[in-house]
Design brief:
The complex is a heterodimer. Chain A is α+β, with helices and mostly antiparallel strands. Chain A is built from 4 helices and 3 strands; from the N terminus they run αβααββα. In chain A, 27% of the residues are buried. In chain B, a hairpin with a 3-residue loop joins strand 2 and strand 3 (119-123). The chains are: A alpha+beta, B mainly alpha. The A-B interface holds A 15, 30, 33-34, 37, 39-42, 48, 50, 69-70, 72-73, 76-77, 79-80, 83, 85-86, 88-89, 91-92, 113 and B 1, 3-8, 10, 13-15, 17, 19-20, 22-23, 26-27, 29-30, 33.
Amino acid sequence: MDNLLIFIGLLMCGWFFGRRAEKKHYKSIIEREHKFNAIPAIASRFPPADTVYDQKLVAGSTVVSSDYFKSITAAMINIFGGEVKPYEALIDRARRESILRMKLQAKNAGADMVFNIKMETSAISAGKIGAIEVLAYGTALIPPNTNTVIEADNLNVAT
Amino acid sequence: MQYENRQPEEGINVSKGSPVKTFLQLLISTVLLLAVSVFVIYLSGSWLAKKIPFRYEQAIMEKIDFDFSGQASDDDIRRYLNDLSARIAVHLPNPDEVTYTVHYEPEDVFNAYATIGGNIVFYKGLINRLPNENALAMVMAHEMAHVSHRDPVAGLGGGVASMIALSAVFGSSGSQYASTFVDNAGGLTAVQFTRRMENNADDAAILAVSKLYGHTVGADSLFKHIDEEREESSTPDWLARFSSTHPLDSDRINNIKEKTLELELPTTGETTPLPDLW
């Protein structure tokens, strides 16, 4: 009986806090996407040929954890098959957040745009609750004669 | 060339729909699937366990640290109970090898149960409330019929099989229960019989009691006694019937009556008093 109560408690916590975190995160993502629209992230491997840009590798990585409610729902979907809808928002958030972080790095480098962007996803298992990491990376194209001081803090790199 | 990232439309990569509704649908499906699987596995385990020779059942019982010895002062009671069981055994359909050992526990517990290896345990609390030997013989014949039908080993086999199956789904907790069942004496008293097993045991018991005493008078007095006490209970009959593995006492009385009529068993005679051992 105790185990059942703990289970129900964890489910409710997962549902409540997971939903709250998701709403909050989406709000922030949409705001920042508007803000970073000035720096296009393009999947093409061929940058514009009219200008000779400085180039720099930029990357943004996000790790998002699932909550108990999503994990249990997904585990039950594993039995019957079908779309794992609870994880869709999780992956969507991680993907968009990673691109935003990559764009932030590009902006700090004084880039006009990022080309040849790619993404990688990996699963991180933290106990029973899974987490995913999405890494977005690309080549930032920096116009010549841009004297930008790249702040290490903003880039999340060790100095 | 001009490049731009347009703000994507929301909701394309995320499906709409209520997650709680999805969860509940999945939960109901999962519980149904589990219940059906466990039921099938339980029946298979029970069926297989009945194939175990009785001597192995006794050997398992010997390996379990279960203290049946009781107190030396109750030797007379034990002798009487075992003598009664020997008289009943003659009238039960006994498969080869099956033997009965009746134990007595001087505790005020209103219970008697049969477990593997032909062991039957009677509590003082039950015998004290029986009005005559006929009622005691009925309870004993009922428990002995469980043994002769191999119900305890079937219940144990089914229980262990379903616990192991559950452990495959829920991790180690299921196998812990399974090991509790087989290693721990406490699990043996928790062996559950199905309602069909109970009814079959009642049928065999009423026949044995009728053959032993020449009539069925007093055989149902235990159930009548419990039924009268339970009438004050607020649980509706249909709910009690659904939630209990034992048939309702009123159903058992009817079942005994039906069996008595069906087999045209004598319904008049003198009851035998219990000896003054308690």
